[in-house]
Structure formats: structure tokens, C-alpha cells
């Protein structure tokens, strides 16, 4: 009789421990949308506080219908030759309402980037979308904006699993793709696609060179990483100007992808540090091994240094397919993914439900903090994006070729938001609010931001500019945070403070376009105001 009682007590104690461990970890989760209609493979936040969610087209029925009269005929679709289902939707963050969007050509594993005027440029895909340029010019939430497929120009090379990055002049470079060891530009340059042998050289027996990590450095060059190697690329001359040392720990790009981020640019904005975390072991993709443990290591390198070397450290969890999201504070959240397997359909297991906070200013060994876990597995084809209110939007997960809802890891239509600890109730009295800020600023310009805070300000109030990246396949293309030079906060009466700011010096530090401007007080960000940065 004693044994069952003891066992019951132990189970109760274990359950109590698990529940309290969850409750004690920082961050909170909320369900925003029970059914978005589609599983978002690609996600981007617009300056109108709407979110573009995009899947691939040749996937059969979704759970969202197109508007009447907007069906499409697709001879390439194996299931639906006459398709009346939406494969892209627009989410209004104010109302949580979903509006279907019309996409005509296949967007499977495509790439994107916002242009200086706020238009989302979208490139490539598969089959009839392989050479396509598309545009989405966002509008007010009650508007009728929709995808536009350009008949011309077309991509010089087909782009499937490519990466886009806006450049200092506002043009966009498109790097790589399956079978495309080249780069090209939008607007197209006269020479079309330019050979980029680096991508061919790093390809291995399972590729591992797709969706390369591309970061625009403040010296105007591009840090391009694929597999386990990186180069510094001059996009004006189309020449490699530096080779970086290899990163230990195996492949890091698709189909073995971890994730990557460039840390916040601060001070005089001349120094850039790149961090790359996680990945699959080589061979897991070829062998279709779902239980091979993922890498837990991160590499960090000062890309603009004289003699850069990789500094290695370990995350609390091994992780494949994680998303690295830059917070307004300069910290990074690593979220989504699995602890075993690789990218690809039904090729991963053991979902990594715990987000992790990476604090770059801490010493090695103290940079990672485990956060409150979610309960929705976000596996292959998941996304994570920073929202203007400081939350992280988490969407997608479809590790199946079509939509499949009866599975261990089903197609996921729910959209969630993760709130970092800085949004906790006990920090509400130090959370700043932007009262006034210019709508447009120019390079090198000086301007004031008026903020209000419930408790008196002690120390510096930061004003930081965050880009709106295009998130897909564990990498946020064009992600960037620039900490502006600011003056001390001057009291302005009634709990308000005036902060003097200096805009970035040029497009190498921050390419032209729309940014989320956050005021940050003692590590707590305001709700962002959109600001346009232009020459």
C-alpha cells in the first residue's frame, strides 16, 4: 500500500516542479490567431502594422478561401488546377483580422526584402515562380493592397533558396539559390547575374550552401556565410576582398541551418559582430535521420576587425531551424526549431520549445538565459518576427509536403506572440512612450524625440532603429538594429523628456527605408513609431 502512495506523491511533486519551473522562467506566450488559414513559410511586418504571411502555392487546399472571382488556374499544381484557396494572407495587428491575398506563381522557398519606399520586393520560388519578381505595396489595414507579379524584368538566374539584402543605395542584392552560384541585383544591372564561385566551393554532398547568411557591414561590404565558411564581398566590384577562417562545428546553412544575426551597431557604428548558432550534423539530411542531435554551439566573430577569429560558446540546447530575432534592446531571442534531425520534410524530431535569450554584452558563459517554453512545436517552415510593440510574432510550421493535420507534428495554422520579460507588468512604470518623433529623417541629421515615463528617468534613454526583415527558413533577411547617438534626457515637464538624436551617417550603417524607432529606458522598449530614413 505504501508504494502506490509514494509513487503518486512523486508524480505530484514532479508535476508541481515542472509547472513552477515554467512559471518562473522569463517571458509569456499568448495565442493571437487560432486559425490563420495558411502555414506561413515567409513572414514580414509592414509599416502599417500589418503582417504579410506567405506559403507556397502548389500545396493543395489551405484553410482560407480567396475572394470571389480571384481563383487562379495553375497547370503545375498536382492537386488543384483551378485553385480558389489563399496561399498568402494579411494580418491586421490591431484587430487580429485576416484578409486573403492573391499570389499567382509558386513561392516555395523564395526570398524578399523591403525597398526604400516600403514596398516588399519578393523574388524567386519554384517552377513558374523561379525567375519571378513580385511586389507587395502595403496599405492601411482597411485597404485593398495585394500582390503584383511583374511580367518584366525577370531574374537572370532562377532563385530557389536565395537570400536578399538591401544595399546602401537602396538597391537589393540577391545571393545564390539552388543551382545558382551567382549574385544579381534589383533593379537589374547591365551585366545580369555575376558568377560567385564561393558558393560552388562551399557546396558539399548535401548542398549546405543554400539560404546563405548575408549581412551588410558598416564599411559597405557584405559578410556572406555558407556551410562553414565566410567571405567579405564587395558588391560594387563583385569581388571577394577577404576570406574569414572556417567556423568549427559542422554545416550551418540549409539543409543544416542554424541561424545568424548581426549584433546591434552602436557607438560610431564602425564595428560589426556576427553570431551564428546551431545547425544539423553533416549526414543527417542524406540519411534522413530524424534523431541525430543538433549542434548546440554558437560562433561569434568581429567581421570588421583586423584579424577576426571565431569565438565559440554553447547554447543551453542543441537547435536546428531556430530563428534569431533582434530585440529593440540589442539582445537576441533564439526561438523555434528542433533538437534533432535536419531541415526537410518530416526530417526532424524533439521540438525545442524553450526560447533562449542571448545577451551579447555579457562574458562567455553568462550570455544565455533559458526562457519560458511554449507548447506548440515550431518545426520546419516556421518564422519569428519582431513586432512594433516589442513582442515576437511566431507563425508557421509545416514539415509535410502538403497540409497534414493528423501527424505527430501537424501543419500549424495558429499564430502566437511571445512577450520578452521587458513587457512584464512590474516594468510598466519604466516603459517609455514616444510622444513626438519626426516621420522622416536624413542621414547625419539631428532631431529630438519627446518621450514620457511614469517614473523619473535615471540614465540614458536610447533611441534605436530596427529594420523589418523578411523571415524564412531560420534567417531574417535584412535584419538590423542601429543604436543612435543620443544626448542625456532633458526633463520637459509632466513626466516628459527630450532626447537629442543623430541619424545614421550613411546607407552603409542603415540602408534607406522604413524603420521601427524604439525608445529604450533601463532595458524596456517603447511601442515603436515608424520612421523613414532617406538621403
UniProtKB/TrEMBL annotation:
SUPFAM superfamilies: E set domains, Galactose oxidase, central domain
UniProt keyword list: Oxidoreductase, Secreted, Signal
Keyword Secreted (UniProt): yes
Signal peptide per UniProt: 1-23
Domain Galactose oxidase-like Early set: 431-532
Pfam entry (one): Glyoxal_oxid_N
Glyoxal oxidase N-terminal domain sequence ranges: 41-422
Matching InterPro entries: Gal_Oxase/kelch_b-propeller, Gal_Oxidase_central_sf, Glyoxal_oxidase_N, GO-like_E_set, Ig-like_fold, Ig_E-set
Cellular localisation: Secreted
Keyword field contains ATP-binding: no
Domain of life: Eukaryota
Molecular function in Gene Ontology: oxidoreductase activity
Gene3D superfamilies for this protein: Galactose oxidase/kelch, beta-propeller, Immunoglobulins
Gene Ontology cellular-component terms listed: cytoplasm; extracellular space
Protein name: Aldehyde oxidase GLOX
Amino acid at each position: 500500500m505504501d508504494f502506490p502512495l509514494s509513487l503518486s506523491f512523486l508524480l505530484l511533486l514532479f508535476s508541481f516542479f515542472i509547472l513552477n519551473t515554467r512559471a518562473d522562467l522569463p517571458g509569456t506566450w499568448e495565442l493571437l490567431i487560432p486559425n490563420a488559414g495558411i502555414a506561413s513559410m515567409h513572414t514580414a511586418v509592414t509599416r502599417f502594422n500589418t503582417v504579410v504571411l506567405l506559403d507556397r502555392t502548389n500545396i493543395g487546399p489551405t484553410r482560407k478561401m480567396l475572394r470571389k472571382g480571384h481563383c487562379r488556374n495553375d497547370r503545375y499544381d498536382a492537386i488543384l488546377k483551378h485553385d480558389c484557396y489563399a496561399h498568402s494572407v494579411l494580418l491586421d495587428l490591431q484587430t487580429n483580422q485576416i484578409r486573403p491575398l492573391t499570389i499567382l506563381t509558386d513561392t516555395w522557398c523564395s526570398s524578399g526584402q523591403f525597398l526604400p519606399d516600403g514596398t516588399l520586393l519578393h523574388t524567386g520560388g519554384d517552377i513558374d515562380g523561379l525567375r519571378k519578381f513580385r511586389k507587395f505595396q502595403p496599405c492601411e489595414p482597411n485597404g485593398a493592397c495585394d500582390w503584383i507579379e511583374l511580367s518584366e524584368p525577370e531574374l537572370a538566374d532562377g532563385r530557389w533558396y536565395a537570400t536578399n539584402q538591401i544595399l546602401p543605395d537602396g538597391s537589393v542584392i540577391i545571393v545564390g539559390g539552388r543551382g545558382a552560384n551567382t549574385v544579381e541585383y534589383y533593379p537589374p544591372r547591365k551585366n545580369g547575374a555575376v558568377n560567385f564561385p564561393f558558393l560552388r566551393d562551399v557546396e558539399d554532398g548535401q548542398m549546405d550552401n543554400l539560404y546563405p547568411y548575408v549581412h551588410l557591414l558598416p564599411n559597405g561590404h557584405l559578410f556572406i556565410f555558407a556551410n562553414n565558411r565566410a567571405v567579405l564581398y564587395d558588391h560594387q566590384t563583385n569581388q571577394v576582398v577577404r576570406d574569414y577562417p572556417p567556423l568549427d562545428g559542422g554545416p550551418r546553412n540549409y539543409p543544416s541551418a542554424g541561424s545568424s544575426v548581426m549584433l546591434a551597431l552602436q557607438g560610431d557604428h564602425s564595428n560589426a559582430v556576427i553570431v551564428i548558432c546551431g545547425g544539423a550534423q553533416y549526414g543527417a539530411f542524406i540519411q534522413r535521420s530524424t534523431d541525430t542531435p543538433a549542434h548546440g554551439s554558437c560562433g561569434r566573430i568581429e567581421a570588421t576587425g583586423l584579424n577576426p577569429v571565431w569565438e565559440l560558446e554553447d547554447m543551453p540546447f542543441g537547435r536546428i531551424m531556430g530563428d534569431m530575432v533582434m530585440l529593440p534592446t540589442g539582445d537576441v531571442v533564439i526561438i523555434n526549431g528542433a533538437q534533432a534531425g535536419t531541415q526537410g520534410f518530416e526530417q526532424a524530431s524533439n521540438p525545442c520549445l524553450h526560447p533562449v535569450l542571448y545577451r551579447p554584452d555579457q562574458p562567455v558563459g553568462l550570455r544565455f538565459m533559458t526562457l519560458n517554453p511554449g507548447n506548440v512545436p515550431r518545426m520546419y517552415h516556421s518564422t519569428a518576427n519582431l513586432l512594433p510593440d516589442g513582442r515576437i510574432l511566431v507563425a508557421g510550421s509545416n514539415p509535410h509536403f502538403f497540409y497534414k493535420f493528423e501527424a505527430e507534428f501537424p501543419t500549424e495554422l495558429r499564430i502566437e506572440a511571445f512577450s520578452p520579460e521587458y513587457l512584464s507588468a512590474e516594468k510598466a512604470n519604466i516603459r517609455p512612450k514616444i510622444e513626438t518623433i519626426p516621420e522622416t529623417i536624413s542621414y547625419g541629421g539631428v532631431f529630438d524625440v519627446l518621450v514620457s515615463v511614469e517614473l523619473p528617468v535615471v540614465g540614458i534613454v536610447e533611441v534605436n532603429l530596427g529594420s523589418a526583415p523578411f523571415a524564412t527558413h531560420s534567417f531574417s533577411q535584412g535584419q538590423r538594429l542601429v543604436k543612435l547617438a543620443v544626448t542625456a534626457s532633458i526633463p520637459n515637464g509632466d513626466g516628459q523628456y527630450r532626447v537629442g538624436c543623430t541619424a545614421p551617417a550613411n546607407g552603409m550603417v542603415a540602408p534607406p527605408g522604413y524603420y521601427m524607432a524604439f525608445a529604450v529606458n533601463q532595458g524596456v522598449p517603447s511601442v515603436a513609431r515608424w520612421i523613414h530614413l532617406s538621403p
